[in-house]
Structures are given as structure tokens and as C-alpha cells.
Structures
1.
Amino acid sequence: MTLMDLFTLFLVLSFSLNHNVVGGRTLSREEDLELERQLKILNKPPIKTIKTEVGDTYDCIDIWKQPALDHPLHQDHEIQMEPSSFPEGFDGETSTIDKEIKVTLTTVDCPQGTVPIRRTYKEDLVRVKSFMEAYSYSSIHPLTKDSPGKHFAVVESLDKVPTKFHGIQGYVSAYNLTVGAYQTTSSQVWLETGYGNSLNSLQAGWMVSSQFYRDNFTRLFVFWKTDDKVTGNWWFQVNDIRIGYWINTLVPRLEGGASRVAWGGLAQALPNRPSPPMGSGHFEPDDKRKVAYFRHIQTVNQQNFWVVPNVTQFETYISSPTCYYIWPFGQIWFKGYLFTFGGPGGNCGV
Ligand SMILES: *[C@@H]1O[C@H](CO)[C@@H](O)[C@H](O)[C@H]1NC(C)=O
Ligand SMILES: *[C@@H]1O[C@H](CO)[C@@H](O)[C@H](O)[C@H]1NC(C)=O
Ligand SMILES: *[C@@H]1O[C@H](CO)[C@@H](O)[C@H](O)[C@H]1NC(C)=O
């Protein structure tokens, strides 16, 4: 298994996906018709279609016809190609380490004025629903973190600190891990406010999920959860590529900043079943050839500056220390604040 240094993940205050899911495993005629109806809405007429090496189909859709714009909150939305402002103090460094494994962030060559959108099939809609049911939400809120089948190894902001976060970034190592049935593993960042029905959560990173994708490929993912309440947008950037943004009205409780942020790993399995590997899949915190890490972790403060974490306001959290570890190295001058994490998984108890 090889390591690559990877991508910088940014979530910055300064919108775009829409996934409504219905239907069960055995579909009634009505459910089936409903899924057909949704597919019609989600899959816009493509200007060009591309099939990637790993078998995904991407449609190039007119940027003004992308499904995200069907959302009622986006009716009169003016698409931004660049953030109106970007936090200061960003060093712009991109990874120089060769990508030694193939991450499914393939270049999809869409014509100007179009955006690549992965085609949605009926099975996807059904799978998303069972995925959500099985895992509910992968929030870092203290009351959901201990749910059975979820295993976190994260560096997170302390709950009692009133600091507001306006962005998060970090370089993360990516590995191609192998997962079993109904398992998902991710290395990611979280940016959240609220809990339960009022949770507003933005998440991004890489993920391997047999349940969601039916394969073992490492993929870049974004996830968001909002309450049903109805400018400054939240941008998502990988290295120097601005992927897109969430308009702030979609996640209203994050306006004015997030109250919780975290970097780290999340391994998910069905309750009381063996859990998947996390990070690099190894348990050697300081073996350079085998570790998974986050480095150069930073947040955006209220003054719109990138800042290193104030160590008194952050802590490490580990759900299942027999299966996973997290090891904070602290500040390493040329790599910023760095920590390693991960583990092989297995029978972790819950
Ligand atoms: C991981 O990637 C390496 C290098 O591309 C490859 O040799 C190996 O077979 C991959 N492993 C899995 C489990 O996909
Ligand atoms: C993932 O890889 C493992 C080991 O090669 C294999 O047993 C499993 O069936 C694969 N899962 C999927 C969904 O392809
Ligand atoms: C770090 O946080 C502590 C406690 O909240 C605070 O007293 C201290 O001033 C902060 N340090 C810096 C450099 O902001």
C-alpha cells in the first residue's frame, strides 16, 4: 500500500449538491415511479458524456441547468466562479509529493460552460437511502459520536470554547483501503453547528465505501446535512482547484461561523460488526512509510485569517482505542501542526 500526500481540503466561508432520497429495497410500483421521476429531475440532458476508467459515467451539464439550481433556495442564484473574498494568510502551497495511488479524482474534460456531474441511477437512490439509514449522520457532536458502529479518531475543537470557525483546511494522506460489506472508511474534515434536527454540517475528504459505491475505490466526497429551516458562501477547494460552494442559506446555522470543527478518520460498520481499516490501515503511529496523517491543519478565525489551532482549545478523541489510534505530533515547523491516525479495524466492541 502506498502513500500519497495529497490534497488540501478547504471549507471556507465566503454551495451545490442536491440528493433527495426515497424508496425501499423492494420497490412498490409507486416507489418505482417516484424514483423514475426523481431521476428525470436529477439527470439533466447532457451536452457530452464521459465514462471514466473506473466505470463512472459523467454528464457534462450546462452550468445553468445543474440540478443544484432546482433547489428552491437557489432560484435566483447568481453562480460565482470565485469567492468574493478569501481568508488571508493562506500560503498557497500545493503538494509536491507524487501521487502514487490513483484517487478517483480524474479529470473529466467537459466543454466550457458545463460542469461534470456523476450520473445517478435508480440503484444509487435506493443505496443512498439505506446508507443514510444504516449510518444516520456522521456528526462529531458528542451525543452522536458514540453511536454503535461508528469509530472516530479526530482532533476536534473543545465544546466549551465559544470560538467561531469560518473555515478549515489540512493536507491529508490518501490510501486505497479495502472495505468489507456495509463498511465505510473516510479521512475528512468537519465543520458544524447544532445537534439533531438542528444540525448543520459540512464534511469533505476521501472515502472508500462498499455500501455507497459498491467498490473499493478511494473517492473524494462532500456531504452536507442541514435542518429544514430555510451571503457569504462555503467554498470547497482541493489543492488550488475551487470545486464549488454551498450557499449560506442552505446551512443557515453556520452563518456567523461554525461552533465545531474536526480533522481525522471515521470508520463505519453495522453495529456490533467488524469495522473497516482507517487512515492507512496500520497501527504504527511514527513509521513514516505507513502512517496516515493530517498536516498543516488550520482554521479561519473571525478576522478572516488562517490560523494554526490554539492547542488549549482542541483535543483528540478516539472511540475505539483497541482498533485505532490518534497521535498528535504538535507543531513541526515546515509541515505546520501534524497528527497521525488510523488502524486496522476489526472487532472493536461496538
Ligand atoms: C492500491 O494501489 C496500489 C498502487 O496503485 C495497487 O498496487 C494496489 O493493488 C491497490 N490496492 C487495492 C486494495 O486496491
Ligand atoms: C473489496 O475488496 C475485497 C478484497 O479484494 C473484496 O473481498 C470485496 O468484495 C471488494 N468489495 C467490493 C464492493 O467490490
Ligand atoms: C489560546 O486559548 C486560551 C484559552 O481559550 C487563551 O487564553 C489564549 O489566549 C489563546 N492563545 C492564543 C495565542 O490565542
Note: Residues 3 and 288 are 10 Å apart (CA to CA).
2.
Amino acid sequence: MSIPTWLFIISLALRIHSVQPGKCPKSCMCDTIKLTVACVNKNLTEVPPTIDEITVKLDLRGNDLQELPTEAFSGTPYLTQLSLQNSNIRRVKEGAFRKLGRLVILNLSNNNIEILYQESFDGLSSLKQLLIDRNRVEEIQPGAFSQLGFLNLLSITHNQLVYMPNLAFQGLQNIKWLRLSHNSLNYLEIEAFAGLFTLTRLSLDNNALQFFPTETMTRLPEVTRLDLGYNPMTYLGEESVSMPKLTQLFLDHNSLQDFSNAAILLSPRLSHLDLSHNQLRVLQPMAPGSPKLTRLNLASNPIYCSCYLRPLREWAIRERIRLTGTCGGPTHLSGENLGAVLPAELRCQSQEAMMKAELEELRRLPTLPTTPPPDKVKCPVNCDCEAQNNHSSCENKGHTKIPRGFAPNTRLLDLRGNHFHYIPANSFPGTAEVVSLHLQRCKIHDVEDGAFTGMKSLVYLYLSENDLTSLSPDAFKGLPHLTYLHLEKNRFTQFPKGAFKLLPGLLALHMENNAITKLEAGILTGAEKLRGLYLTSNAITTIAPKAFDPAPDLDTLHLGNNKLNEVQSETFSKAQSLTELHLSRNPIRWIGAGVFQPVATTLKHLYLDHMGLEKMSRESLAGFGSGLRSLLLEGNQLEELPDLSPLSGLEVINLAENPLLCDCPLLPLRKWIEQVNLKVRATCGHPPELRGQRVKDVHVFKSCPGENPPPAQNPKITKPTKRTVSAQISPSKVTKIVQAKGQTRTNAKPHTLQKTTTKKRKSV
Ligand SMILES: *[C@@H]1O[C@H](CO)[C@@H](O)[C@H](O)[C@H]1NC(C)=O
Ligand SMILES: *[C@@H]1O[C@H](CO)[C@@H](O)[C@H](O)[C@H]1NC(C)=O
Ligand SMILES: *[C@@H]1O[C@H](CO)[C@@H](O)[C@H](O)[C@H]1NC(C)=O
């Protein structure tokens, strides 16, 4: 090696390691080529004043800085990267970083900062990444980030944020990803994220959001990925998610028991939905018009693989959706992959068999490997309380009195299968956070006035399978947010009139399998928001004309398997939002003209099957048009049918098991069947020689007048019909109908419920 080369190497080495005593502060390492200074883990109490002005990278991790004063770094204006982690910083004074106009990355993680002041970050006009993770931030003052017009990433995870005020992030004109995971956020003001027009990803996982913040999220036009895992949400209502560009939505590890099939209707680009680790037992296919999902994750939900799951499975197959998750029951399907179960295997057994199967499952449960030892949590004797998800259960433990002393943050309280016999007043002190209360199969025959007083957060109340015969009007005192009430399988002989006047937020009332004989006027007084009324399998013989009047939003009415022998148009005269009506299995022999007229423009699904129906007036479907999507008439005694051609929006029709008379009067039906692209299932019952043949296949109609109709004779079934049918059955049309309907229903649930959280938020 030549001497000059030697000299060069030596000089290089010297330069790299030369610690220029004048310029490099004591206890720091300085690299004068890379222009970096590192003073790491030195317990420094202030920023060393003698750092070389041309330094670009300054590492001050592991010191004891306590407070960053105004212009703390004014001596080093060329910094591009500043590391201040683990330095016991409590306070960043206004203008602390002023003069750092070239800084690109600022890391303040692992300190003790509590408040982000209005001018804390002034002067950082080139900053791209700001990391304030693992501090104690509980307040962001308005304008804190207003000078950070180039910021791409803002990360404030693992802090103590509870409440997000309006315009908290104003000025972040180039923000791409905002990370707020691992805080205690329970309330986001509507304009909390206003102005973030470039944000594409928002992380809000591991917070305390009880409801999907619908309105707040609609202010985020460009977000494609939203993380809301590990929050305590219990349901998502209709049209909860309205985000135009969202493609991925994570709602894993919540406490979802209910996910509306119209929840994502207004997020047209959503393709990936994660609902894993929730409490869903069943899920409906997403409503027509919903986005085209490619992946749906249902792992670790107690999905019950019965006939109720079949529509979901069929939908997933049809739409080629990758379905993840396994069946939680019944026993013979337990553990099967949802994506592998065939729709035909999803069957419903008799009620008893199902209950037996469920009981067996419950018995099996304790033998399953138990998850990590539960954290210590307040819990009454003979109960199991899990701190992790705030669930407390005393299910099937032979309690005769309602146990007391649950942890105050209990959210789900399961008391199923005990022997309480009655519920005295004030039975649930200190349970203001409980959202879901299970009291099924507890032999309850009486609920005293004020039994549930104080359960301010209760949304779901299950009193099914008890011995209730009546309820006092004050039984539900103090339940301002009760939304879903289950009273099925009790012994009511009368509708518990007046009992719902204290439940202004009630959306769904289940009273199936009781012995109610009549529905009188005023039964729904107070339940003004009611949307679903379920009365299947009672003994109802009469319905008073104004029975459903005070519920203008009623959209689902199940009256199947009762003893009605007629329907009258006055019954539904005020039910102007009704979309689904079940009258199956009532002994109704005849349906007169215009009976459904008051609801014909809103009704989408009409169930008239298995009624022994012998005749429908020609005008019995008067008023129905393209809005009706299903009509079920199977299992009746119909020989003839009214004209179905105005029903151009039908997607499902069932005429099976009717003894149709295959002769000329049936020609319009035959022609209609030929024209629509639907499985109609119509077979001839008469004359005897044609019995069992499909209406579509028989030839008797050839000789009927009108088969080649003279123009005037049968205007309804000629060519125009075909056009109407094919035009109106297109999916886009259906979508529009659904959306139009959707817009009129505002999202009642979250609105009423968010009010509570407002109260709870910490004042800032
Ligand atoms: C910093 O302070 C801690 C605790 O006071 C001490 O244990 C440690 O040795 C100090 N480190 C230096 C480099 O002085
Ligand atoms: C910021 O500091 C934290 C804690 O030391 C570290 O984990 C993280 O990687 C740093 N981020 C950047 C971008 O420097
Ligand atoms: C349980 O309650 C605690 C305290 O209120 C809360 O911090 C935690 O997030 C809750 N967990 C769930 C899963 O709701």
C-alpha cells in the first residue's frame, strides 16, 4: 500500500473518531461526518448548550429533561431528526421547537407529557412524523397541531385521552395516518376529525367507544382503513358506517351481539370486514345495495349453525365471500369451518331438541380448557366474573336471590337458569354500566316496580322463558336506554298494556310464544320508536283498529301462528313504515279487496303461507307495485290467484302446495310465470289429470281465448309487462329503493344512546 493511501485512511479514521473537545458537549458522542450528536442515558437535566450548529441528528434519549423550555433547540436549526424518548419530559412549553424548520422526525415517546398546548409544536413546518406514544396526554388544546402542514403521521397511542373535542387536529393538511390506539376514548365530538381531507388510515382500537361514531366518521372522506378493534361496542345499527372510500373495517374484540344487515349500506367500497372475537350468534346477509364484501371474519363468535344461519351461508357462496370462523354449536357442527358447512346442513330442530342441545353445550363448557386465570375482580359468591371483558355470570348456579356485589364496570350480567321466582325493587344496585342482562329460565312470575332502577346503560334485557303473566306499568322504571326487550315464552294472556310507556327507546319487543288473545288500542303507548314487534305463536283472535297506532316507525310485524280469521285494512292504517308482515299460519280463509292498501307502498315482504286460504279477492293486492319483494303464499287452498303482474319488483314468490285449477282463468298467471325470471313453484291441483304438474309445463292453456289475445281483451299481460318486469327487477333499482327507504329512517339507536356518553366524558 502506498504512503498517500495510508495517510488518507489515517486521516479518515481520525475524522470519524475525532471528538472535537470544543464542539462536542461532555457526555455526548459526536460524528462530524454524519453530523450526528448522541447523548444517550446520561441523566442530563437540560439540552446541552454547546452542540455544533450544523448537527442534523440529535439523540437525547434516556435523560431527565423534565421540561422543554421555549426555543430549547434554537442553537441547532439544521436538525432533521430529534429523539427525546425516555427523558422524563413532563411539559413541552409553547414554542419549544421553534427554529426547527427542517425537522422531519420528532420522537417524544415514553415521557410524561399531559397536555399538548396550543403552540407546543410551532415552527415545525417540515415535520413529517410526530410520535407522542406512551405519555399521559389527556388534553389536546385547540390549534396544537395547526402549524404542522406537512405532517404525514401523528401517533398518540397509549395515552389517557378520554374525549376528543371538535377540530382537535385542525391544520394537518397532509396527514395520512392518525394513530389513537390504546387510549380511553369514549366520546368523539362530531367535528373531532373535521378538516382531515387527506387522512387514509385511522386507528382507534383499544379505546372505550360504546357506539360506532357514525357522524364523526362521515367527516372523513378519504379514509380507507378504520381500526376499531378492542372497543366495548354491543351493536351496530342500520347505516352506522357511512364512509365513501372505506375498504377495510376492523371491529374485532368488541362485545357485538347484533350487527344490522344494513349497517354498512352506505360504505360502497368496503371489501374487508372483521367481526372476529365478538358475541354474535347469528348474522344476516348484508342487505341488497350493501358493498361487495370479499372477506368477512367471524372467528371466535359463538355462531350457532342452525337454519337461521343458512341465508348468510348461501349469500357468502353466491357472492364468493371468504368467510372465516367456526360454528359454536349445535354439538354436531361445533368447530366446523363456516366456509365449509353446506347450507343444507344448517337445520333447525324442534324447540325442545334445540334447548336440549344448548343445555348440553353448557354442560360441556366447564370441561373446555380455561383461558388464563382471571384477574382479580369483585364478584359475588358462586359466580364467575371476567375482568378482561367485564362479563359476570352466575348462570345455572341455583341462586334463589339476585346476587349482589358485582364489579361496577360489569357490562354483561348473565343470570340465566336460576330460581328467582320474583324480582324485587332495586335488585341491581351498582350496575349502571351493564348493557346486557340475561334472566332467561329463572321461573320469574313477578317483576316489582323499579326492579331495574339504576341500570342506566341497559340496552338488552332478556326475560324470556319465565312465568310472567303480567307486568306493572312501572316495572321498567329507570331504563332510559332499553332497546331490545325479550319477553317470549312466558304466560302472558294479555298484552302488558302500559308497561312500555317508560321505555322511549324501545326498538324491538319479543313476545312470541305467549298466550295473548287480543290486541287492543293503545297497547304500544309510549313505545313510539318501536320498529319490530314479534307476536308469533300466541292465541290472538282479534286486533283492534288502532292497535299499532302510536308506533309510526314500526317496520316489522310478526303475527304468524295465531288465531286470526280475518285481516282488516284499518288494522294497519297508521303503520306507514311497515315493510315486513307475517300472517302465516292463521286460519284466514279469505282476503278481501284492498286489505293491505294502507301499507302497500311500503311493504316489502308479505307472508301469507299455510293459512288454509281459499280465496283472494281480485283486488286483494290492490296498491302493491314494484316495491314488494317477497310474497309467500305456499300451503294454502287457492285455486285461483289475483293478477300478480303489477308486482314487478318481486325477488321471491312461493305458490307451492296450492291446488291451482289449471284452466283458462289461470292463463294470466301462466303468462306471468313465463315472463318473470323467478322460481314460482306453482303446480296444478285440478283437474285430476293434471294434478302435480307444473303450471309452466301444462298445455291446457293453448286453447284458451286470449292465448293470442286481441289487443283489447287482456291489456295487463301483453308485452309491456315483460318490459316492466325485466327493467324493474335490476339490482340497481332494488338498491335505490332500499336507500330511499333508509334515508327516511335516521339512526335512532346511536343518537339516543350517545347522550349518555356525553355525560360521562371527562371535562377538559
Ligand atoms: C442516572 O441516575 C440514576 C438514578 O439516579 C443512576 O442510577 C444512574 O447511574 C445515573 N446514570 C448516569 C450515567 O449518571
Ligand atoms: C420512537 O421511539 C419509540 C420508543 O423508543 C420507538 O419504539 C419508535 O420506533 C421510535 N419511532 C421512530 C420513528 O423513531
Ligand atoms: C372493562 O372495564 C374497564 C373499566 O371500566 C375498561 O377500562 C375496559 O376497557 C373494559 N373492557 C371491556 C372489554 O369493555
Note: The chain is about 10% helix and 15% strand.
